[in-house]
Design goal:
mainly beta, globular, 3-stranded antiparallel β-sheet, 70 residues
């Protein structure tokens, strides 16, 4: 849920080909992956009051709004 402002989120399904950069599952329930050039990433433009649901097999990351080319 985005309470205020705008946010861009990149996401794609984990197909098992992601290389782990940092594994923080034990302490923060979080994994960072190295950039995956083969990922078929989708961009979600979030606005105030919108929400997104991610499942365990969904890789997702916050992106800057200016990174999205229209």
């Amino acid at each position: 849920f985005l309470a205020k402002g705008k946010e861009l989120i990149g996401c794609y399904p984990d197909m098992g080909d992601n290389e782990v950069d940092e594994n923080l599952l034990e302490t923060r329930d979080l994994i960072f992956y190295k950039n995956n050039e083969n990922a078929r990433e989708t961009h979600l433009e979030m606005e105030e009051g919108s929400y997104a649901v991610f499942y365990p097999h969904d890789v997702h990351i916050y992106l800057e709004l200016h990174l999205l080319n229209h």
